[in-house]
Design a protein that fits this description.
Blueprint (H helix, E strand, L loop, with lengths): L3 H11 L6 E4 H4 L6 H7 L4 E6 L14 H10 L6 E3 L8 H17 L1
Parallel strand pairs: 1-2, 2-3
Helix pairs in contact: 3-4, 4-5
Length: 110
Amino acid sequence: ILTLDEASSMVTMLDHPAARTIFDVKSATTEGRSLEQLIREHADIIAHVHANDANRRGPGFGDTDFAPILQTLRSIGYDGYVSVEVFDYSPDPETIARESLRYLKECAAR
């Protein structure tokens, strides 16, 4: 499963209330639609959010603006977890964790 449309098809096929998906910011940036549009289109199946930049680093370490993402999640009533997922741990894991959390809190306050 590489796209939210594919995930949605799988959820429909499984036809079970526990079948849902993850909204992965990095992966969603390749889908050709705005992240906000994808969130709205798939609001009913988003069970978790992976916050990561398109550059495979943490939120705030690249060009992805997380404020509209968090605003859209709030607007659809999402109240689940948002976890930081990274693939490039530079400069170091502690800095990524601290600064990603700081940045996400700043974006959520906007």
